[in-house]
Design brief:
With about 80 residues, the chain is mostly helical. The protein is built from six helices and no strands.
Length: about 80
């Protein structure tokens, strides 16, 4: 875990943006290879966009901070309801 943290901290954002994270994680979670053909992405993307915009506006957060907060809330919801 320390190695992963070190890599994340030391790699430039420019380089991180070149990584196809869906492809990387799909090797562990195969659903990431197939869901695009099955899920109504526009529907969920629209709802997610509303939540992101609301967090950004309500708390005066940057786009990135809003995404990180929403991602963290989603992760906690998932973990709490398992």
């Amino acid at each position: 875990m320390k190695n992963i943290e070190k890599i994340i901290k030391t790699k430039a954002e420019k380089n991180q943006n070149k990584i196809n994270w869906t492809k990387v994680w799909a090797s562990k979670y195969p659903i990431l290879k197939t869901y695009q053909k099955e899920v109504d992405i526009k529907k969920y993307a629209g709802e997610i966009r509303k939540l992101l915009d609301d967090i950004e506006k309500t708390y005066n957060y940057s786009k990135e901070d809003s995404m990180l907060v929403l991602k963290d809330i989603l992760a906690h919801e998932y973990l709490d309801k398992r």
